[in-house]
Amino acid sequence: MEKKIELLQTIEDHFINKRLDYWLRKKYPDSSFNLICKLIRKGVIRVNGSRATQSIVLSKNDKIKVPKVLIDNKKQDLEQTFSKRFRDKVLKWIIFCNKDFIAINKPSKLSVQGGSKIKMSLDSLYQIFKLDYQEKPKLVHRIDKDTSGLLLISRTLEYAQYLTKLFKNRKIQKTYIAITSGQVKIDKAIINISIKHKDKILNAKTYYRVLTKSKNHSLLIIRPDTGRKHQIRKHLMYLNNPLVGDKKYNNEKTSGDLNSDFLNLHSYSLSFQDKNGGDITLTAKPPCEMLQNLKKLDFNFKTMKSDYFLNSKKWLTINEDF
């Protein structure tokens, strides 16, 4: 006779005052929400030995009975087999790691999340980024598939919640570098132009400053205030200075002898305060193709200064009426 399997789990501190269904979805992401609700409704999942509703708020030291079906679903999350050579290649993307999070330099043309037409994505590589942890790493923000550069991956659920809150409250400064087609006429400005996405009109604001420019190209340092899909790409298109290598928003601009087989947009730095109040600033080296383009143009991105965005709120604003 098959032995009945179930777990009695005690609520961790960072789940106090969270709903039961929230805890279950986070602990057992491979089980459907409908299944979780059904198990709660039938009394299979219990809190402190009693039946509960999915909206019950959890307290410290609450004990939750977890049935076999959820445990089995989690066991089915089998690890994919990667060659040592591939694992070593992925591990080289890591530029910072501590007990709370990992920072990687994501290559261009790698999707952050999977989909029906995506063979390889960052979230399919989570087992490599687990390192010495048992807990599955969590993505806390995204950058476009074609954008290279800095990306944060939380190593614990608790720190994922912390980082997500920082991003939501715009407490993380994100800085990009970009090579554009044509001379950007205004050297520093705020682009405040709404963006349409899925039949919704969303406000979008981007700060930029020209680092250097030639007759046919410009090098920009960019700080998006909002995080809309393709925001930087669309805003630069509105300036009539699309990114070199942007096949979607290029306005038929030519790139001369530059490599335009990839998007010349790189997430260069991230700055924020950790949970202990310490200042963290991370930088990621641009990909070699972008470095080659910068060399051809004699553009030096390393001349950037930390105070480039001082008093930026007073800069000229470019909007729909400009």
Largest sheet descriptor: 11 strands, mixed
Overall shape: elongated
CATH architecture of the largest domain: 2-Layer Sandwich
Query: How much of the residues is beta strand, in percent?
Result: 25-35%
Flag low-confidence runs: 1-5
Could you state the CATH homologous superfamily of the largest domain?
Pseudouridine synthase
Topology as H/E string? EHHEEHHEEHEEHEEEEEEHEEHE
Structural class: alpha+beta
CATH-defined fold name of the largest domain: Pseudouridine synthase
Helical residue percent band:
10-25%
CATH top level of the largest domain is Alpha Beta
Overall average pLDDT: 88
> What is the terminal separation in angstroms?
76 Å
Rounded to an integer in angstroms, the radius of gyration calculated over CA atoms is: 23 Å
How many separate helices? 8
- Counting DSSP E segments of at least 2 residues, the number of strands comes to 16
